[in-house]
Amino acid sequence: MHDRRSFPCAVVVDDRMFCIGGYDGNDTLRTGKVYDFESNQWTPIPTMTVARSNAGAAVHNKKICIVGGWDGVSLASAEVYDVVIGEWKRIENLPRPTTGVRCCFISLQNQNDDLKPLRQKNSKGHLCSIM
Q1: Half-sphere exposure (Cβ direction) of 67: Cα atoms closer than 13 Å
Q2: Within 10 Å of residue 26's Cβ, how many Cβ atoms?
Q3: Which of 79, 81, 115, 78 is nearest to 93 (CA)?
Q4: PANTHER family annotated for this entry (predicted)?
Q5: What is the pLDDT of residue 107?
Q6: pLDDT digits (tens, 9 = 90+) for 26-80
């Protein structure tokens, strides 16, 4: 990758690494690139709907979920990139704005294979959101 960025999201899907969003020293970024390990090449991907750095990212069924982050303020917005069709889609916002969030997917069976938020409070009263 020939452009600099700090605090991007980075995830691997199949044999490709996606580097999305971040901060270039002047602006928060909506852009992303994918690195193909076989061809040793970086290729741009479509831009996110929201510029964000220091967001959380996780992969599920060849879809990259990006949540929260920073663009001068903490963000509650979330979106999903479908790796197969190459398209971003907004999804339900987080319960509150967050920066520096860490994400993972936990497989919970449902009929439609939808991404649904699950919220619960832990023993200290902190809200945990599982998507």
Answers
A1: 24
A2: 6
A3: 78
A4: KELCH REPEAT SUPERFAMILY PROTEIN, OS02G0202900 PROTEIN
A5: 59
A6: 999 999 999 999 999 999 999 999 999 999 999 988 999 999 999 999 999 999 9
